[in-house]
Amino acid sequence: MPHFIIDCCESVLKSHDEEVILEQIHRVAHSTGLFDEGDIKVRINPFKTYSVGNKRESFIHVFAHIMQGRTTEQKANLSEQIVTKLVDLFPDIPNIAMNISDFEKATYCNRAML
Questions:
Q1: Cα separation, 107 vs 89, whole angstroms
Q2: Which of 25, 43, 92, 103 has its CB surrounded by the most CB atoms within 10 Å?
Q3: How far apart are CA 28 and CA 83, in angstroms?
Q4: CA 34, CA 93: separation in Å to the nearest integer?
Q5: Model-level pTM?
Q6: Each residue's pLDDT tens digit, 27-44
């Protein structure tokens, strides 16, 4: 926790290497002060086949899954900072967005908790 899963068109990876994208999202997430650096997980899912508004337009969408407890303002700031970084990295991509979902503490479990 937290998880940042980046869905994007394959062409995104022609502009920047996957490692650069992962590093930049990790840095922005850590810079918010909401997460311990070692807990941040970032993954990229590039898509060869996709449709955006029934067109083949380039896209990036970040799905963030974080532990409950952050305020709406903190989550909005996190989204804005990550989208801003992606717009800076990919100024020609017309569709860049992000949404955040909360994990429920009562139902979350990982290996270390067993």
A1: 36
A2: 25
A3: 10
A4: 28
A5: 0.94
A6: 999 999 999 999 999 999
